[in-house]
Write a structure and sequence with these properties.
The chain is mainly alpha-helical and 332 residues long. It folds into 2 domains: 216 residues, Alpha-lytic protease prodomain-like; 83 residues, Alpha-Beta Plaits. The chain has 10 helices and 5 strands, in the order H-H-H-E-E-H-H-H-H-H-E-E-H-E-H. The strands form 2 sheets. The protein has a 3-stranded mixed sheet with strand order 3-4-5, with helices on one face. It has a two-stranded antiparallel sheet with strand order 1-2. Helix 3 runs antiparallel to helix 7 and helix 6 runs antiparallel to helix 7. It is elongated, with a radius of gyration of 26 Å.
Length: 332
Amino acid sequence: MKERVTGKFLPASPVELPGEIQEQEKKAHRLEVITVIYLFTVIILMYLTLSSSQAMKAAWLEDLLSILPSVTFLVASRIHNKKPTFMFPGGFHRVFRIGFAIGAIALLAMGIYIVIDSVLALVKAEHPTIPHQQVFGYQVWFGWIMILALLYSFVPAMILGIKKMPLSKILHNKLLNVDADTQKADWLTALAAITGIILVGFGLWWADAAAAILISVLILRDGVNMISNAIGDLMGKIPTTVEGEIDPVNMTVIDFFMKQEWVKDVRIRLREEGQVFSGEVFVIPYREENIMTNIENAVAQVKKLDWKIHEITVQPVKAFHSHQAETETSRS
């Protein structure tokens, strides 16, 4: 009687990013370090110029939240490439998804808070006061100082966002993409706050709370979009690009297996694991001889097609279930 070999856990292989991708990741890391340092100065400056303006308070809270994606990216980038362990055999690639979900919840919660706070201020008819301050011996309306602070809060941020956007696409990093997109759109928050402050200077007290409400709506919009994407990723949605389109890698895998002479038909089930993809490929083979060798060769070759293809399991089957055929038909 043959001796049975004891089964063991099989951890996933560690992610080995191509050299050019590692270089882009280092570049993104440097930009995020610069972003964190810059945002700390913005948060301090905005706090010192808050006065009693609801719009400034909303803009300050938005800046306070905007540091979260950058910090999360820096933490996640030190974890996601760690080798799989006994307790985490699949590795730590999903850490970016966790950070993405936390940021989305925080953004949505803060947006709701600012809406409620600003609406209450409008209902109570709270009149913001923007006093004059003595600067270098001159009496200066504090609103001009607030406007300068707002300009500082969005011009460098917009430049950083523009620089991060192409990197997020190369790295297939949705957390970095949301961070870049939010910073690129920071001018809307600053413009709303500046408009509110100027109108308050002309005696329109309600403009301050109205500007704060507009800022909170922008924050809520970003929060809802992030929550939607985070839920989709956590539920194992088909891999998509950072723009939300179906990733071409899906068809690349299908086309590759359909070109194998031993494969009659194929179905795939891919999912995102942070920056990389994993999943199953179900094939109906023409013949069963040398099936293990064919599968091993195919797995090794398909991983070379795109660096995002990480863990692929090929399962030979005699036929597809009816629901699998229906799903394929509905996508056609």
